[in-house]
Amino acid sequence: MTKFTLIAATLAASFAFVASANALTIVNKDDHNHNVRIVMAGAKKGDKPTEVKIEKGKSAEFDCSKGCTAHLGKKDDPKKDVVLKGTEKTLTIEKDKLTAAM
User: Fold this and answer.
1) Percent of the chain, pLDDT > 90?
2) In whole angstroms, what is the distance from residue 9 CA to residue 84 CA?
3) How far apart, in whole angstroms, are the C-alpha atoms of residue 38 and residue 40?
4) Triad 76, 81, 87: Cα angle to 5°
5) pTM value?
6) What does the pLDDT read at residue 40?
7) Number of domains forming the structure of the chain
8) Which of 6, 14, 58, 95 is the most buried (most CB within 10 A)?
9) Which of 33, 35, 88 is nearest to 99 (CA)?
10) Measuring CA to CA, how many Å separate 91 from each of 10, 24, 25, 62, 64?
11) Is residue 69 in a domain?
């Protein structure tokens, strides 16, 4: 019974590590708070985006491993959209602009 508990705990920890390893870290380097709206790849027209609020100087994680589109702020402007393939590790907010990096 003890070995089973240890194996189960090890497996759970490794799944948590894999999930966090695939997470996109969104870093806010601006001097004010921002909202990032994210639409998952394959979303249907009319699906609401997920809104991630990030305070100035803070970061947040989001699972974008299957791809997504990120938009800074609430106003739609396709020129400001950042399309992510799912391989990016960091999305940085700086000077009211989003920049993705591997």
Assistant:
1) 67
2) 33
3) 6
4) 145
5) 0.75
6) 95
7) 1
8) 58
9) 88
10) 30, 7, 6, 10, 11
11) yes
Could you tell me the residue range of the domain that residue 58 belongs to?
Answer: 23-101
Least confident of 18-22, 29-33, 55-59, 87-91: 18-22
Alpha-carbon radius of gyration of the chain? 16
The answer to whether 63 and 24 have CB atoms below 8 angstroms apart is yes
Phi-psi group of 27: left, alpha or beta (phi > 0 → left; psi -120 to 50 → alpha; rest → beta)? beta
d(CA 16, CA 92): 24
Among the listed residues 88, 94, 87, 11, the one whose alpha carbon sits nearest the alpha carbon of residue 54: 94
Q: What is the pLDDT of residues 29-50, one digit of tens each?
A: 999 999 999 999 999 988 999 9
68 domain-assigned: yes
